[in-house]
Amino acid sequence: MPLDRVVHRSGGVDDLRVAGLAKRFGKAGTVFSDLSFTIARGECVALVGANGTGKSTLLRCCLGLILPDAGQVALLGSDLARLSGPRRRQLRARTGLVGQKHNLVPRLSVLSNVIHGLLGRHSGPRYWWQGLAPAEARATAMAALAKVGLADLALRRADQLSGGQSQRVAIARALVCGPRFLVADEPCASLDPQAGEEVMALFMSLVKREGVTVIFTSHNVAHALRYGDRIIGLQGGRIAIDAAAKTVSAQDMAALYV
Amino acid sequence: MSEPSPPPRFARTGASGFLGYALVAVLVVWAFDGAGWSVERLLASPPRLADFMSRAWPPSTANLGRLAWKMVETLQIALAGAALGIVLSLPIALFAARGVLVGRGVNWAVRMALGFVRAVPDLVWALVFVVAVGLGPFAGMLAIVADTIGFCARFFADDMENTDPGPAEALTATGARRIDIAACAVIPAALPAFVSTALFSVEKAVRSSTILGLVGAGGIGIELKVSFDLFDYPTALTVILMIAVVVVGVEQIGAVLRRRIMGSTR
Lengths: 258, 266
Description:
The structure holds two protein chains of two kinds.
Chain A: E1 14-25, E2 29-40, E3 44-49, H1 55-62, E4 70-75, E5 78-79, H2 85-92, E6 95-98, H3 110-115, H4 135-147, H5 163-175, E7 181-185, H6 193-209, E8 213-217, H7 221-227, E9 230-235, E10 238-244, H8 250-256
Parallel strand pairs in A: 3-8, 3-9, 6-7, 7-8
Antiparallel strand pairs in A: 1-2, 1-4, 4-5, 9-10
Chain B: H1 15-34, H2 39-56, H3 64-96, H4 104-119, H5 122-133, H6 137-161, H7 165-172, H8 178-209, H9 221-229, H10 233-264
């Protein structure tokens, strides 16, 4: 389906439009095919489905980190396939990714890791290490750390943090550049239930307060229903559910994992 | 319900597997033949070795001061060459590592060039640099630089390719440039492996520098050659023992440093 024929759900601006997206990996075969959906500005979408249904692959296609085999992705109004390298970087400066494994650089300080979140807007050695960073960048990073409650751990090495603290730093890094679109791939999967609840609640309060458009994956049905404005459920490489969260039941969700 | 029978202890080798084993066996026999393998000569060697030891023992202490200075020069060649080689290896490795800074074509070209540098033995590099810059330790140092680049740049590149791609992906998603991603995510993650590789290269440089003198590229190797040429076996034994002590000492220091640095690098 061409991008201009994707229906606007909200009647407002769409931050993400996906049309006819397909991806297959060699021997693994087709991951998904003919996926089409849109995400309106400020919307929070929970992407759910069993393991192997291509949730992570879809998220990476949405950011242009993986090229799809067919279909189009328009992110923040730009068709990813038509963007040159520099233009794509400029676009990504308004996006962020929070991964399951937190993906911090373990041997660097918390503050250096958060300052790295500014690299989309500022390039060069002054942003490589907190000791060299401009005062403004340090202040911005400290403000982001304060939002996740970790300002007092700014100089601690990232590999000396607990799982929950580590994911909070990853959230601060993703938010420090003031993104408009965030992707979170199972942000609580590696955390215990208590830490997972805390991190998810913090993450969602921050992104909703700042009006960031979010698509996140989760195997936690309660999280998906509580924090998602909308649920997109994948099954067998197709969209099986695409509906407002309040209209989706836990049984509907459970059916995705059969 | 009947008990399941245990699986066979050994997997049966197929025809192609058997052919593979046979080919390796033939290759090894062929190699021994080419290397002049001789049981008679091997059995005759202990008396000759004993004769050498009887003529070399005790090691000479007559020129110990001069030999010690030559050993210091050897270490200087090794340290200077390894230091420069390690520093130059990092930017080269960035171009050789796949998926870090440049495209696959450049990666391939740089890796091929490094393969060539590595394929040329250190002694041959020393001969080349003796021709280029003249006799003496400077030629030896340049030979160590070339040898270190061939070793370090390749392993630095491998270390960078083997880092967790997660942090790099997170920075890519924020629009960071490749050079920033390399500096902030790839190099810090590979740093412990870099330190380990660099320490091995220093040990390798010390071993290499002890023989570069054989071709006039400075260091204690020339003393070894002269003492053998003059049948001055006691001095030759002194040099051999000095080399052994220094090489083993440097390896031990390297092992201690590796343990300490790997545990505390920031």
